[in-house]
Amino acid sequence: MFRSWFSLAVALLAAPALFAAEVELKPSATPAPSRPKGSASPAMSRPAGSPPGSTPSAELPMYRPAVLPIGPQSVINRIDTAGLIRDGQKDASLYFCSAVNKWGEILDTWTYKQSPDSKLLERELVRCLDNATFVPAVYDHEPVFVLFYGAVTFKVVDGKPHLRLFANQEPEEIKKESNFVGPQPFYGKGSKFEGLHYPADAVTSTLSGLVELGMKIDAEGKLKDLQVVSEYPPLVGFRRAAAEDFRVASFIPAFRDGKPVECSITLPVYYEPPVAEQ
Q1: In angstroms, rounded to a whole number, what is the distance separating the alpha carbons of residues 125 and 143?
Q2: What pLDDT digit, counting tens, does each position of 139-162 carry?
């Protein structure tokens, strides 16, 4: 289920308590629950027989990004920080993106922009995400399928682990450990976003590509501006593919301190060669 970034060409027909960073943990394999200052567990009551994470539409807000829940079984609390130190993990960081359906289930996850020597952290994150369930995203009072963009940092200070999990990929927001949840492109409810498509006109189908898109997204999730900031490798189709994939997207807006806000972000978009059909 988990892998490095692959071209996502998805055909997917089939509570203000939000957090952007989870706090540092004690160096034990089963740490006590920790909660960001000022946040609380999202209410997820649902009628009997309904899918996990579902809530009656009348109770849902206008917008809500997908977020990982907090508590004893949260991803942040299941990451074995003591084991990471024991196995020699030094300071490390990486980005990840998860495709999350309307019931909060993770359909796929990609990791990228790993710092050097981050394999142990990456493996442990993947292990914990494998059984994780998100608080589902909501747009116009209904659950929707989204792409969740997150980041993980790990530091060892005086022999103790400092682990952070962020719901955004903005370096300045991560550095400040802001209570900021980045915008999330979603499927359905009028959004024309259909995922990532490896460029069909690429010079070769064996290249991986990285495009950074500068975006301005308003507090209602509408894309107001899109610019290609960088492209690598150049002139082989990735720039056009990224612009076409996202220019029709609608978003769950960014949230700061629990409220939807306008924002400007730089989103890295990765493309890998499609898997050859057997």
Answers
A1: 25
A2: 999 999 999 999 999 999 999 999
